[in-house]
Specification:
Elements (H helix, E strand, L loop, with lengths): L1 H10 L5 E10 L16 E8 L3 E6 L3 H7 L4 E11 L16 H7 L9 H5 L12 E6 L7 H4 L30 E3 L13 H11 L15 E6 L6 E3 H13 L4 E4 L8 H12 L3 E5 L22 E7 L18 E4 L3 E4 L5 E4 L2 H18 L5 H10 L2 E2 L11 E2 L2 H9 L34 H6 L15 E4 L2 H9 L1 H7 L3 E10 L2 E11 L2 E3 L11 E7 L6 E11 L4 E5 L5 H18 L1
Parallel strand pairs: 5-7, 5-9, 6-7, 9-10, 10-11, 11-12, 17-20
Antiparallel strand pairs: 1-3, 1-4, 2-3, 4-8, 13-14, 15-16, 17-23, 18-19, 18-21, 19-20, 21-22, 22-23
Bound molecules: calcium ion.
The site of calcium ion (CA) has 7 residues, from loops.
Length: about 600
């Protein structure tokens, strides 16, 4: 027994969760104090994690974890897992070399070939002090005195706390004198970096907008909100990560960068990402540095299927996946440069690091700059633009859902132009099923994304039903069969209706054309399995069989965890579109009824 234990310790020197600590969510209106009477051992409240009834507690008797998880007042309870910066890739310097400012400016300039960041700079709108997006760097802290950050005025400051009066929580956000952000690890107002990782990340974020190595520095177009939750060893509590996410969202960040993670699923961390999504904030996550497949071995938060989340793999200068990078054809969306990246470090120095930790902040930076061009866009819409503007590379095929590496220049063009995005972001609701919200679960009525349920759930009003709210295009046809079995009468009325329609699927610049073969049951099915890729934008043209009239609807290929199949989500399949199809099919329905 002892041998086993010591072996396990040797294999994982880092504890997976904080001993005795748990995150607990109470059902609404329940008081945390009632928990005291429910436990056998001691229970101490370590603090509130979010204002939505989530608390950090310590239990002296592990048995109470079991009893509380069954308690009717408790929505969920889980260990307070430890999160950490990704492992350093093999071959990386264990002690990064710190290079001086003069050495850097003499030898390096911003490049990031082939992502076209320098080219993108010519396209940006003029500098505007009132339009500087905020990227929250939730990490080991940020070097608040580095010349590249200070001279460019890149460090976010809380305007409400800048009055020189100390000891008062001026904006009543729960944090006293949070002038430069917050240190959640030490619960202090100094998010100064004591590890180096977060500073490197911060430099990459602002480096998307100007040359951080040049000796003359313009004002940064991006502000960095420094939120420290990882300690000097690069580890931190899930409860603190969640506090940081809520802080970022509530204090005005448009983008959150998460270059860290862990292998344990945490519902409370997922809830925090869902909160960010509800407030239209984009969360950019590092896929991890284990050379593993996130679809099989999840890395959280990168693997949470929240629409706010954009998971990033690391690529090389030649657009190969970096050898250390995690990947995932479903759960990692894009690749970005992550090998041998120079950025800001301790003092006024720079250093070289590799990892998905470096790839994510580059995406966070260009996301912020895209938002700056079109501030009306939600984080989800920015994510759509990033996905649409990648350069597809065969070397990345099957490694990320877009098969592509981000392109800053194309992204800015898309953001400035009128490139179509969904009019609003889809509804999303966290489910208890490990958080993988299926399409159906997310159904939110008109404008929502749950088209499958909208179809199934609207039975009982005759042949109009199937087309009433949404169109469904499914490959393979798993959901199609579900609909058949549930709506036999409607099926009979529509089954012989044929429509010829072109389906154009645009995958990062490649366009593939297929044919919709049948329209019935409100569902369109077509047989071109190979056309489908998750995350692709689809433009479907539907022609009136009489030849009079054509409508165009836009959708996105999505994966239904429940159905284990792909479908197209027509967010904007408006009533007028549905009505038009209804009018085309009306006579046919009558004829066959
Ligand atoms: Ca405050």
């Amino acid at each position: 027994m002892y041998l086993v234990i010591s072996f396990a310790m040797a294999q994982s020197p880092q504890l997976e969760a904080v001993p005795g600590e748990y995150i607990i969510k109470l059902k609404s209106q329940r008081s945390v104090h009632t928990l005291q009477s429910k436990v056998v051992g001691g229970l101490s409240l370590k603090g509130q994690v979010s204002s939505t009834g989530v608390y950090q507690v310590k239990l002296s008797n592990p048995q109470d974890f079991q009893s509380l998880s069954q308690d009717p007042d408790v929505e969920y309870i889980e260990p307070n897992y430890i999160l950490s910066k990704p492992v350093q890739p093999e071959g990386a310097q264990s002690e990064p070399e710190a290079l001086s400012e003069s050495a850097m400016s003499a030898s390096f300039s911003q490049n990031y070939a082939p992502v076209q960041v320098v080219q993108s700079w010519d396209q940006y709108s003029a500098f505007n002090i009132n339009n500087r997006p905020v990227v929250a760097v939730i990490d080991t802290g940020v070097n608040l005195t580095h010349a590249a950050l200070v001279q460019s005025d890149a460090i976010w400051k809380n305007p409400s706390e800048l009055n020189g009066i100390s000891g008062i929580d001026d904006d009543q956000n729960g944090y006293v004198d949070d002038i430069n952000g917050w240190n959640f690890s030490a619960n202090s107002n100094s998010p100064q970096d004591d590890e180096g990782h977060g500073s490197h990340v911060a430099g990459i974020v602002i480096g998307a907008g100007f040359d951080i190595f040049a000796s003359s520095r313009p004002q940064s177009k991006i502000q960095v909100m420094a939120l420290k939750f990882l300690d000097a060893n690069g580890s931190g509590r899930t409860s603190d990560a969640i506090r940081a996410i809520y802080y970022a969202v509530d204090n005005g960040a448009q983008v959150i960068n998460c270059s860290w993670g862990g292998g344990s699923y945490s519902r409370s961390l997922l809830d925090a990402l869902a909160y960010a999504y509800s407030r239209e904030v984009l969360v950019v996550t590092a896929a991890g540095n284990n050379s593993s497949n996130n679809d099989v071995s999840p890395m959280y938060p990168a693997s949470y299927d929240v629409p706010a989340n954009l998971a990033v793999a690391a690529s090389t200068d030649s657009d190969n996946l970096a050898s250390f990078s995690n990947y995932g054809a479903n759960l990692v969306q894009v690749a970005a440069p992550g090998l041998y990246i120079y950025s800001t470090y301790f003092g006024n120095t720079y250093t070289l690091m590799s990892g998905t930790s470096m790839a994510a902040p580059f995406v966070a930076g260009i996301a912020a700059l895209a938002w700056r061009e079109s501030p009306q866009l939600t984080g989800y819409q920015i994510k759509e633009l990033i996905i649409s503007s990648v350069n597809v590379r065969s070397s990345l095929s099957g490694k990320v859902s877009t098969n592509g590496r981000v392109n800053a220049n194309s992204l800015v063009s898309f953001a400035k132009g009128s490139t179509a995005v969904l009019a609003s972001q889809p509804e999303y609701k966290v489910t208890s099923d490990r958080g993988l919200a299926s399409i159906e679960e997310a159904a939110g009525g008109a404008g929502g994304c749950g088209l499958v349920r909208a179809l199934n759930g609207s039975s009982g009003s005759g042949p109009m039903i199937p087309l009433g709210a949404f169109l469904v295009l499914l490959v393979p046809v798993a959901v199609w069969y579900t609909m058949k079995s549930r709506l036999p009468q409607s099926r009979r009325k529509f089954e012989r209706f044929q429509v010829k329609s072109d389906v154009r699927i645009n995958m990062g610049g490649r366009e593939v054309v297929g044919q919709v073969q049948t329209l019935s049951m409100g569902g369109l099915s077509f047989s071109a399995d190979d056309l489908i890729e998750k995350g692709s934008l689809v433009t479907m043209k539907i022609s009136n069989p009489t030849g009079e009239g054509e409508i165009e609807v836009q959708g996105r290929i999505v994966w239904s965890e429940e159905k284990k199949s792909y479908g197209v989500q027509f967010q904007d399949a408006s009533q007028s579109v549905s009505q038009k199809i209804l009018s085309w099919t009306k006579n046919l329905a009558k004829g066959s009824a």
